[in-house]
Fold this protein.
Amino acid sequence: MEERTPLLKVEHLKQYFPISKKFTVKAVDDVSFEIYPGETYGLVGESGSGKTTIGRSIIRLYDPTGGKIIFDGVDIT
């Protein structure tokens, strides 16, 4: 059986937004998943659950607070 390499691998992604010195919004906290070539991936959740924030972190509109994003074998974080 051949070993497949994921096209996109998200490991323990965290995206926090400091609101004030005492308050931080944890929009995404410890999200991990893999997408393999040829696959379709659906990210579902309630409104405000962090779907858009995950996408924006993956395409580097936001610098992730923590975790790794690996695209085609290259760590893009």
Q: What stands out?
A: The helical segments are 51-58. The mean pLDDT is 95. The first strand starts at residue 8 and ends at 18.
